[in-house]
Design a protein that fits this description.
It is a single chain. With 364 residues, the protein is an alpha/beta fold. The protein has nine helices and 16 strands. The strands form four sheets. The chain has a six-stranded mixed beta sheet with strand order 1-5-6-7-4-8. A six-stranded mixed beta sheet has the order 9-13-14-15-12-16, covered by helices on one side. Strands 2-3 form a two-stranded antiparallel ribbon. Helix 3 runs antiparallel to helix 8 and helix 4 packs parallel to helix 6.
Length: 364
């Protein structure tokens, strides 16, 4: 039987620039091996990870695919939980260096597989194209920062309309439903931080369905801009007190705010559902839905409708400009890859991948 492949983002394009949760890809204290791939664009890092991950899934291993927020077709890492092994792209903007060299971490230098003379000949073009990529991302982050200001104003309006008493009762009831009334665990749980969605060259992209496989899903339906942070922060704190591993997935437009929680040991996921992200099968018997707008004053929301409509329109417009800039960066990155691809020895790359597979399976 084939293993399950889950999909997520370890980093994202955000109003704060590129925001990384790479240190949560795998627990360093429990890892058997972390392979860190170093090399330029187009040197085969993502291809190696994708092929190895698919091969392992065909052999029955569950695998986590860590996607790149700046390239919808590229991976930044894979994790094999059963073997406690990860392969990670260790190049910019998410530079990863060994924490426990030799003991856990192993660097694989793909630079050994290229024709250095051929790349040196393209030096000026590489410099020029790299600068264009940098400029595009800086522009995208300025747009996202501007959109975040409008989004903050929308959130302020929803906070003003919120009945905190009703929300507090709901939080208490939901915590009791999920965790019961048991006392805290002597061993607190661990929190793992990642993104379930990202702002990519193709627009907003998300992987909620793959994260909630075979789970009871609790949908917190909230209009875009209404924060579910009070509910989710409270559930996260309770889960950690009770000793559960807690996967917390953050919002790319506010990368320090929780947007979804997955509790693998309980097979329960609590997600924020809106027009930007939701699971596909909302009518499953395993799902329950709560409408967060029931905690809002409809009168206050009506009074602020012109501001909310304005914020929504221009937030979406500005985010689209950011997406256009990220897409332009991707096109320049594709151009940059060509200078490396034509100077890579792909036969040696295939041998390296097969050798990597043997090393991974030696831990089985």
């Amino acid at each position: 039987m084939e293993g399950i492949i889950r999909h997520m983002f370890p980093g994202g394009n955000t109003p704060l620039g590129f925001f990384s949760y790479y240190k949560y890809i795998i627990d360093l204290e429990k890892a058997n091996r972390i392979f860190i791939l170093k090399g330029g664009p187009g040197t085969g890092k993502s291809t190696i990870m994708k092929k190895v991950g698919l091969d392992l899934a065909r052999q029955g291993y569950d695998v986590e695919f860590m996607h790149c927020s700046s390239d919808n077709n590229s991976l930044d890492g894979i994790v094999v939980p059963k073997l406690s092994i990860a392969i990670i792209d260790g190049t910019a903007p998410h530079v990863v260096d060994p924490t426990y060299p030799g003991a856990v971490d192993e660097i694989i230098n793909l630079g050994e597989l290229w024709d250095e003379d051929g790349i040196i000949k393209a030096k000026e073009k590489i410099f020029e194209t790299s600068k264009k990529i940098k400029d595009c991302f800086e522009r995208a982050y300025r747009y996202l920062k501007a959109a975040a200001e409008l989004k903050a104003d929308t959130e302020k309006i929803y906070e003003y309309a919120l009945d905190r008493g009703k929300e507090a009762i709901f939080i208490h009831e939901l915590k009791t439903k999920i965790f019961g009334s048991d006392i805290p665990s002597k061993n607190p749980g661990k929190q793992r931080c990642l993104f379930a969605s990202a702002i990519t060259p193709k627009g907003p992209s998300e992987f909620l369905d793959s994260l909630c496989i075979a789970h009871d899903v609790i949908r917190l339906c909230a209009p875009a801009g209404q924060s579910t942070k009070n509910v989710l922060e409270s559930l996260k704190d309770e889960a950690l007190k009770k000793g559960f591993l807690t996967e917390t997935y953050f919002c790319p437009m506010s990368p320090k705010r929780i947007e979804h929680i997955v509790l693998p040991e309980l097979k329960i996921s609590v997600i924020t559902a809106n027009e930007y992200h939701d699971i596909s099968d909302i009518n499953s018997e395993n799902n329950s839905t709560y409408f967060m707008n029931e905690f809002l004053s409809s009168e206050i929301i009506s009074d602020f409708k012109p501001q909310l409509d304005f914020n929504r329109l221009y937030t979406d417009t500005i985010i689209q400009r950011a997406v256009d800039s990220i897409a332009m960066a991707k096109s320049f990155h594709d151009e940059l890859e060509k200078y490396y691809i034509k100077n890579i020895n792909f036969d040696r790359l295939t041998l390296l991948r097969k050798d990597l597979m043997k090393k991974i399976l030696s831990h089985a």
